[in-house]
């Protein structure tokens, strides 16, 4: 049997929310392998001078856990 | 008085989350008429080889129930 | 110490959900200053004749409260 | 064994919330039989010119599923 | 200092939901004294032959705890 | 585009919960215009000597925000 | 694109909760095809004379929606 | 009218979760009569040396309240 | 096997929230024995003339149920 | 009847969470009168160099709404 | 003082849900030591041809964090 | 773009809840760098002989993820 591990990350983008969520995948792929799914659990933004300077997405990533 | 019925569907797209949610509307429109609103209750994605192969949206569709 | 105030608004757009959420920022900026962040808490749509006529986003806006 | 099915409907009334919830039962009884229970999960209202023009109740109806 | 205790009861009525919630107060008053508040946390109904035979209300009752 | 604003109020009545929720509408109509909907998010009561002395309803009011 | 539909059922068994949840699958399979997953959202039981007479499971079933 | 009371208990077992939930019924039956239903709201376990030493179930028990 | 019972109390203090939560323990210890844990589920305060006159904590207390 | 209004604020302090929540009261008292209660709905902190530089509390303030 | 860390894993089994949850413990024990508890937060299943091919359990594991 | 990672820890203290939450920060700082924020999601306590022997705080820590 193979256990799946779930971690939570916050991605960001200056383009939009979809890009912020995809940023999480890009970052996660640098340290874990065998990612199988993601679940976006929050959408926020940081604002300065009435402009969104950073779109942000809280994302749960599921991946097949490998043993050392 | 006319009752409104609410059903839950999961739409998918290879393009993005907005398209996945709109896919639900396209599918629902094939079997029910008089859709009045939708509420996106979940955003997920299926991933293979570090790429999103399917954007998915859990959507509640409200439509005016017709009697047979 | 400066308190931050949180208000809830519903934005709308005929283009898409990201535009609906950004619409909230545009509207809020007309009456409050020093907005620091936003949190999208709901994504809905109004539908007529199987078409989305209005994308809507429920958004919580955080801004630095000013005293009169 | 007999499975029970749960559906969600929105009832409405110009009289009050109890009538809006009971309207769901009246509507549901036209298409399903053997309703055993209901659970009111939301109470809203539509307003025009400072008057409630429609009381609304989101109701989950449980009924014994019949096979075709 | 006097601690307040919170208990949950389900009241019922053949008349309506308000009566079902008030039924909880009537019942609770038979065993506890110094009730200070109530919070209705659920509204359901039992149905037979397309009629509501019992309106029900889940209610949390707060009362000042007395020591034996 | 016109943003909709959402505020939360607590109404009260000595008659019943429906009256408590409608009390919110009466009060809100004194300071804001163009109310379009309400959502009752809580039902409580204050009790003295085993009698409900005040029915209370927590209500979210949605209205079209006007600019000064 | 193929939309997935989600329905909620309550299964029951005199044996145990796992059997109650599996009962939902047995019942659902009589009317819908292409079931892909299930999510158990509630575990309850009906009790008489201090014995569980019916284990119950609230289950959400996801299946590929077919068009007529 | 007869009010139903709801209490929360935590049962435990060295065998499994179903036994832990049923343990609550066994314990509750020693002090209250006329139990009509139960709702399992949490499943946990205590672990020592990589073994589950105690399966635990948080259970809400509903019973017909008797007056002294 | 020994069942654990969970009750909810509201403690209060004029000093602060930690004292309000601890007040629940002091009160509970007067009527139940073998308290094993507590879970603070709400923090509120009563205010008069812009001063907190009573810090309050909603607390769930778990104790080993004794049989009469 | 007098409606109560509920607003959400975020207070901050360099001392601790209780001070952050009380900071909300201090700030709110500058613009609204007749505050009757508060409910702390979130506790967070901002951190720099492994030190908490700002304790923060999300607080809902209830006050008696005055008419202009 | 010793901090406890909480991680989320998804276990699976072809036998049943209890086995799926215990599978998480087996997998977690391969990489972390000093596990003290687990909390099952979700029960799902993957289905093919009207049969459950994989029982799944989302489990939060608490263990005493060790420093490198 | 830099992804932020979120982990959950349980801190403890014999002094109070604020110290328990700060304990999480002390522990986390031993293994991760660039912590930017924390969110306290639960407050509990372990009790023996009617005394709190351990204040506990469930805390989510956000930190800038570093790549190996």
Give a topology summary.
12 copies of one chain form a homododecamer.
Chain A: E1 4-13, H1 17-28, E2 35-48, E3 51-64
Antiparallel strand pairs in A: 1-3, 2-3
Q: Can you give a write-up of this model?
A:
12 copies of one chain form a homododecamer. By secondary structure, the first copy, chain A, is α+β, with helices and mostly antiparallel strands. The first copy, chain A, has 1 helix and 3 strands; from the N terminus they run βαββ. Chain A has one helix at residues 17-28, and strands at residues 4-13, 35-48, 51-64. The longest helix of chain A is centred in the first third of the chain and has 12 residues, at 17-28. The mean pLDDT of chain A is 93. Chain A binds chain K through residues 1-7, 62, 65, 67-68, and chain K through 7-13, 23-24, 26-28, 30-31, 58.
């Amino acid at each position: 049997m193979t256990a799946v591990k779930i971690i939570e990350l916050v991605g960001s983008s200056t383009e939009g929310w979809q890009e912020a969520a995809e940023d999480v995948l890009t970052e996660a792929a640098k340290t874990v392998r065998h990612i199988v799914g993601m679940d976006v659990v929050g959408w926020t933004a940081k604002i300065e001078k009435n402009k969104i300077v950073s779109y942000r997405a809280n994302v749960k990533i599921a991946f097949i856990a490998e043993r050392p």
